[in-house]
Structures are given as C-alpha cells and as structure tokens.
Design brief:
Elements: H1 8-32, H2 35-42, H3 46-49, H4 51-64, H5 67-73, H6 76-96, H7 100-128, H8 134-163, H9 166-186, H10 200-223, H11 228-250, H12 264-293, H13 299-305, H14 307-327, H15 330-349, H16 354-381, H17 388-418, H18 424-455
Helix pairs in contact: 1-7, 1-8, 1-9, 4-7, 4-10, 4-17, 6-7, 6-9, 7-8, 7-17, 8-14, 10-11, 10-17, 12-13, 12-16, 12-17, 12-18, 14-15, 14-16, 15-16, 15-18, 16-17, 17-18
Length: 466
C-alpha cells in the first residue's frame, strides 16, 4: 500500500463523500438556530422540536453500526449513491413541507444518508489511500466536514431571519446534487465484495443501547433519573450493551467484533475520544447559553462566538494530518493535548466574557483539530486490516453519540441550578462553572488515556486469532 500514489480520481471521490457529510451536518447545526421559528410556525414545544436533531443523531448512530456489513455486501459507489439520494429526498421534503411530521420524516431520511455516508468516507481512506498519505487525507476530509458546524449557525440564522427556514434546505440541495454527480464518476471499489449475512440480533441489541442511552440522557435535565421511564431507558441501554457483548462472543460473524477491544490502545483511544467529544459539546451548549442568558448577548453574537474555534478545528485537521504522515502520531497528538489542556485551564480560570469564551473555545478547538483525526487514524491503523471498517464504525458512532451526551450533560447540570432560582443569570453562570469543573475531570482522564495510547504508538498492527 505504501508504494501507491494518490490519484486525482481518488482525491475527488473522498472529497465527494466528505461533501455529503458536510451538507448533512451543516443542516443539523443550521436548523438548531431556527428552532424558535419552527416552534412558532409548526405549533410545537421545545421538547418536540428538538427531535429534529435528537432523532437524526439516534438514527445516524443506528445506521453507522451497520457499516461493516454494508462495506462487505455493497460497493462504495452503491452505498454513496443510495445515501445521497435518500438524503436528497429528505432535503426536498423539508424544503417544501409545513407539517412537523413530514419535516421530521425528511430529517430522518437525512439521518439515514449521514449514517451511511460518514463511515464510508473513512472506509475509502483506509481501503485505498497509501499508508504514508493516510493522515493527510483524513485531515483533508475532516477539514471539509468540520466547516459544517462552523458555518451552520451563522448560515441558518441568516437565511431564517431574511428568507425563512425553508431556504436552508433549498440552498443545500444543489450542493448535495453536485456531490452525487462527482461521486458517481469517481468512487471506485478495491476490496472484493461478499454475500455477508446481516447480524439482525446484534443490530437490535446495539440499537437498544443507543435508543436507551439517548432517552436516558435526554430525560436527565427535565425529569431526572429516578422515575419509571428514565430507569427503564437506562435498563434498556445496559441490557443492549451487555447483551451484545455476550452475544457477540458466541457469534461467528458479529456486526462489530468485541475482539477489537482486546488491543488496550484501541479501547483507550475510543474512550478518550468519547470523553473529549463530550467535553467539546458541553462547550458548544454552555458558551452560547451563557452569552445569551448571563451577558444578554443576541443569538447571532452567541453563534459567532463559536465560529473562530470551528474554523481553527477545520484548519488544524489538515495540518495535523500532514504532521502525522511525516512524524507519526505522537507529535500531533501531543500538540493537540497541550492545546486542549491549555484551553480547559483558560475556560475555568478566566472571567466569563464574550472574548474570554471565544478565545478559550479557539484554543480547545485548535487542540481538537490536532487530536481527533490522528487519534482515530492511529488506533485503527494498529488493528488488523480485517477490522478497519468495524473500527471506523465504532469511532463514527461514538463521535456522533457523544455529541448528544455532551449536550445533555451540560443541559442537566445547568438546569439543576436554574430550577427555582430567583436570579436566572447568576444561576446559569453558576451552572456553567460547575459544568466546566466536571469537564476538568473528564479531560484529565482523557489525557491520561491518550498518553497511554501514545506510549504504545510504535507497536505494529494487531493480529487477532480466533
């Protein structure tokens, strides 16, 4: 693999898949700022409208875990075209609908498209890109996808304010169509296909884990844990994950093999990614919330405060990928961890102002841009090739799922302090500060795990024997 070179066709195919991910994620972040308008026009409350995001995250996670079976059974181009067309239909439905049920259905179709498309991008990289260029291509793909949360809030807020929320979907539709055309002509199939059996029982158990977990974290802020529905959801989550673990031990071809976690550095890298993504999304929730409720800033100022950090994350992804290819994983990962720790210290110690939070978010996102892609590339590269697709699915799923957990965690902590408070601004600030203190614990654990991963980074690929 290391003797091969990157062809323009391969680069365009990866960019087409990345562009599909870009539009799906940008729709999610752009629509979030339109929720007040949607609630008013569609006559739904906040708990209902948020399923336009939560429902997509859930369905995307459930589709992502099917990626190893999809990769074995269907060609890369077939997966891409189905994902793109399904998502395109969903976008058109939302661009023309005024009923919440239809809009939710359209968003769920986009979730199906994202669930197929996001792991496909990394599958193509690990399947077709030479080892010595893998970090750069992961970084380039991440650069495109990472621009979506940067542009989404400003893009959605502007279009909603001046042209209505439907225009968000009309603007994205031709971008999606362009990606489909490019992908049709460029995406290739290298690995041979086989008639793999779909592990329905395994998929149902993992789906129970995702559904139960999302309902649990979603209910924490409004209902707490100690009630029938929350405890039932928690029980479903635990039955799903532990049931799958014991089931997969006996299954000949499980959907996601637990054997991957026999490699300590892989499971440590996955857990570190979960923790840092959770913290990252607590920032995404707490900073705009604080700027609006504590500092009385407008929603546009709150959204723009995250913009420089998101741009920094995107740019650092490609720079760090190049460093990975030249020097290995230790240097870019060490730089990333350094920025993340510095940003965490800053956000805890510096007074809560627009500029201090903007700078703190920039610092942490520079670190995230260095760390996330390289951590994943390093961990998957140490797996035997047969486990690359499954490893990629795990990282895609936990990255997507941890985002929902991070938002729910921040919302839960802040709401605890807001309930019954006579001074909402002071209570919100207190809740944000305690969120940051809890983040310190999570970051410390993530850094410890990541340092252990870096210590083993020079080991060769893992060979798992049955």
């Amino acid at each position: 693999m290391s003797e091969k070179v990157l062809s323009p066709r391969l680069i365009l195919s990866i960019l087409a898949i990345a562009l599909l991910g870009f539009t799906d994620i940008m729709l999610e972040t752009a629509l979030n700022v339109s929720f007040p308008a949607l609630m008013k026009q569609l006559h739904v409350d906040s708990a209902t409208v948020q399923w336009l995001t939560s429902g997509v995250i859930l369905l995307t996670s459930m589709i992502v875990i099917m990626s190893p079976w999809l990769k074995a059974r269907f060609s890369n181009r077939s997966q891409f075209m189905v994902a793109g067309v399904v998502s395109l239909i969903g976008i058109f439905i939302d661009a023309t609908s005024n009923q919440f049920g239809l809009i939710l259905f359209g968003r769920l179709l986009q979730g199906v498209g994202a669930g197929v498309g996001l792991p496909l991008m990394n599958n193509v990289v690990f399947e077709q890109v030479p080892d010595n260029r893998r970090g750069t291509m992961i970084g380039l793909a991440s650069l495109i996808v990472s621009f979506s949360p940067a542009l989404g809030p400003a893009f959605g807020g502007f279009l909603t304010a001046y042209y209505g929320w439907h225009m968000i979907f009309w603007v994205v539709l031709p971008i999606q169509l362009f990606a489909l055309i490019v992908g049709w002509f460029t995406i290739q199939q290298i690995d041979p296909l086989k008639k793999a059996r779909f592990d329905l029982i395994g998929w149902l158990l993992l789906s129970c884990f995702f559904v139960g977990g999302l309902i649990t974290v979603d209910r924490l802020s409004g209902h707490g844990l100690f009630n029938i529905l929350s405890l039932t959801a928690l029980a479903v989550m635990l039955v799903g994950i532990f049931g799958y673990y014991f089931y997969a031990q006996k299954e000949e071809e499980p959907l996601l093999s637990p054997k991957m976690f026999a490699l300590p550095m892989f499971r440590q890298a996955v857990l570190a990614a979960v923790l840092i993504q959770v913290v990252n999304l607590t920032f995404n929730y707490a900073i705009p919330m604080g700027l609006q409720l504590v500092l009385k800033q407008s929603s546009s100022v709150a959204g723009l405060s995250l913009f420089p950090g998101a741009i920094g994350f995107a740019i650092m992804s490609i720079i760090s990928g190049n460093l990975y290819d030249r020097f290995g994983p230790k240097l870019p990962n060490a730089i990333g961890l350094g920025f993340i720790v510095l940003g965490m210290v800053w956000i805890v110690l510096v007074p809560f102002t627009v500029w201090s939070m903007t700078i703190a978010f920039v610092i942490t996102q520079l670190g995230g841009g260095f760390w996330f892609g390289n951590n994943m590339t390093n961990a998957i590269s140490h797996l035997d090739r047969v486990f690359h697709s499954a490893g990629n699915s795990i990282f895609s799923a936990v990255n997507n799922y941890s985002a929902a957990v991070g938002i729910a965690l921040a919302a839960s902590i802040i709401s605890i302090f807001q309930k019954g408070a006579t001074n909402l601004s002071a209570a919100t600030l207190n809740g944000i500060q305690w969120t940051y203190r809890f983040d310190v614990i999570l970051i410390a654990l993530a850094v410890y795990l990541s340092l252990k991963v870096m210590k083993d980074a020079g080991d060769g690929p893992m060979v798992i024997k049955d």
